[in-house]
Fold:
Amino acid sequence: MIDFRSDTVTRPCSKMRDAMAQAEVGDDVYGDDPTVNELEQWSAKRHGFEAALFCSSGTQANLLALMAHCERGDEYLCGQQAHNYKFEGGGAAVLGSIQPQPIENEKDGTISLTKLEQAIKPDDSHFARTTLVSIENTINGKVLPLSYLAELRTFVNKHQLSLHLDGARVYNAATALDVDITEIAQHFDTMSVCLSKGLGAPIGSLLLGPTDLIVKARRWRKVLGGGMRQAGILCAAAKIALTQNVDKLKIDHENAQYLAHQLNSIAGFDVNVEQVSTNMVFVKVDKSIDIYAAATALKAQDIIISPSEHMRLVTHLDISKTDIDSFITALKAVLI
Ligand SMILES: *Cc1c(COP(=O)(O)O)cnc(C)c1O
Structure:
């Protein structure tokens, strides 16, 4: 199977499965799971935060961050394209009584500081209380410049707001910039990290932040049904993801470049290669091509894509350069 739909499709490698089988476990709701405790302590230190919480998903980690930062009637400013606005079922509003204030993202994925400033509500009972700014990095495969993060930090300090990073793919950003993860993390009060995407763990995300907020988030995690018991089995895999798979993201990025170039060699497929900076390739498919029929034909050969006129292909641990060659050959054949 060669699956380009997402980097979430990776399967745990044998090393991970061995670590999971061997993991020492306990009841994490009692705080008794040594593997969970070790991962949380190690992760907090590794990313430069006081504390960490192992969560069932990125959606949960983001929701817990919002619920830790914001009280009922507060609002968070975020991008119109933000995952934690657009793709998380409205959880902040539904479950947190927190109002989102989305702002159109700029082309490079940033949110203009001028637009953010205009969106901050005055202290007046007509308005929700603006409490938090939440951004995403990478956003749709784009890496936010470090200089922007520094400016945003200064901005939130000036306005006494807090700053959250949806860092589902923040390791892809650090890899693309060739900096340590702390160079990005240092600007944020809280940060979520997906372990089950490019890093290859089967399940889980981290929420990182100051101790008081993580204590609050831990309480909300239990309320939301996210108190897990022998979760050390998952944390054993997570530790391998964070210690052994980070370096491999570079290969995913190189493969995405290679894939972009190969796709551009096919008539009717157009990739802006300059915009491929991490593991995502966005392809414009000409109307003359029936990409839906092509996807069906590819599926019969165990190659999976999400067909669309603006198609996203994602590289990951389970896609090699040879797999990309196989895909391109098969694609050319089904287009004839
Ligand atoms: C995938 C993703 C999430 C949510 O993660 P799940 O584990 O699928 O809930 C959050 N933010 C971004 C940017 C993501 O890509």
